Each structure stands twice: as C-alpha cells, then as structure tokens.
Amino acid sequence: MKKILTIFLSIVFTCISGLTTAQNIYPKYEYKVNVGYNIGGSAPIPLPVEIREIKSFKPVLFAPHVGIEATSWLSNKWGIAAQLGLDYKGFTVEARVKSLRTEMEMQYEKYVGHFTGNNKTEIKNIYVTLPVMATHRLSDEWLIQFGVYIAYLHKPSFKGTASEGYIREDDPTGAKTEVDFANFNFSKEQNEIDYGFAVAGEWNFYKRFALKGQLSWGTRPLFASDFTGITYKMYNIYGTIGFSYNLSR
C-alpha cells in the first residue's frame, strides 16, 4: 500500500512539476488583433418549399471583421479566449418564389399576403460580437477554438424588392393583385441580439502573424416569432477568413 501511495504521489508531483515548468514556456496571457473578411448568409434551414429557385447569390464586397482578442492560458495546452469584434455581414440573393407569405409596399400602399414572382433581398447588417471560446494549442504553430458567441445588431439593413408576379391578399386564395415592382423593408424587425456556436482554427506562419478561419452558426432566428413578413426561420451562418497579429510575443 505504501509503495502504491509513493508511486501515486510521484506521478502527481511529476505532473504538477511538468505543468509548472510548461507554464513558463508561453505567456499566461496573450492579446491579438484580428482582421478578416466575412462571407456567408442568413439562411432558412431547410430551404422552404416557397423558394422554388435561387437565381443568384452575391456576398457584399465590404464585409470586414476587426477584433481584439485576449486569451488566458490555464496550461500549455488549454486556455479561454474572448474577443470583442465588429462585423459587417451581408449578401444579395435573387430567387423565384411561389405563394410566399410576405408584406410589401407598392405605390405607397401596403399589401399583406402570398406573393408569387421574383424576390430580391439585400442584407447589410453590422454586429458587435463577443465570442468566448475554449482554446487548445496543438503545437507551436497550430491552435483550435470552439465555444459560443453573442452579438448585438448595431446597424440593421434587411430590404429588397418583389417583381414580375402577383400577390393574393391575406391567404393563397385571396384577391389577386399584379405586382410589377414593389419594395419591402424589414430592417427594424430583426432581433437585436444574435447568439450561437463558433469554431476557429489558427496557423502561426511567421513570428507574430497567423492565418485564422472561423465559422459562426447562429441558433436564434433573425426575426421574432410573431413577425409575419417572413414566416420561416432564418439563421446567421458566416465564415471569417483573415489574419491575426499577436501583441504578446
């Protein structure tokens, strides 16, 4: 028994000594500046049957990400990272829809009903984001992160047009009105708070510089459940590719 206890204490002592020694290899706290480009969309999952054809999809050209990240290393391998960032996210999509429940304005008059025709949606949102992620150092060059994020919608923009179709008021069999061109603007109907999961990977390719990629998957719908302009749920799904500069090395 005494021999087993001696071996156990030796192992624990060795582990603690190793951890203490290892903690001296890297700084306990690291600070980084991250810049990148956001690409992705706000998408329904699955694609609703009302959307019959995606005719085109274009990410916005100006969709930067900037952020400052702090990591507290609990050991050589594991740490906790938090980042305060500013994200421009958006895209333009054109689709052919059938009997899509929506709201629109045509010649200064509001229509609510089921639209069939062409739909063009433009989203340009600006978020203040705060991801908090567990960080695992795979080697001196590579690390991975996974965790959650919360974001505040600082500047919303969700608008578009409806054309070359018709709308049936109130229900699919309601009165039919031809739609040559109409507008909609749901910017203020979006939820101010978004949250979800995030995973990231980083490759330190030169001294303080690293290449970084991140995927953020929202779990809160873009609109409140009582909003009737869009009846299906949309979620923010965006990837970010960019560079990280380590201020602590």
Note the topology.
Layout: H1 2-23, E1 29-44, E2 51-59, E3 64-73, E4 78-106, E5 109-137, E6 142-155, E7 158-169, E8 176-185, E9 193-206, E10 209-218, E11 234-246
Antiparallel strand pairs: 1-3, 1-11, 2-4, 3-4, 4-5, 5-6, 5-7, 6-9, 7-8, 9-10, 10-11
Give a summary of the structure in a few sentences:
By secondary structure, the chain is mainly beta.
Provide a descriptive summary of the structure in words.
The chain is mostly beta strands and about 250 residues long. About 10% of the residues lie in helices and about 65% in strands. It is built from one helix and eleven strands; from the N terminus they run αβββββββββββ. The chain has one helix at about 1-25; strands at about 30-45, 50-60, 65-75, 80-105, 110-135, 140-155, 160-170, 175-185, 195-205, 210-220, 235-245. It has an eight-stranded antiparallel barrel with strand order 1-3-4-5-6-9-10-11. A hairpin with a 2-residue loop joins β4 (about 80-105) and β5 (about 110-135). The two termini are about 45 Å apart. The model is unreliable at about 15-20 (pLDDT under 50).
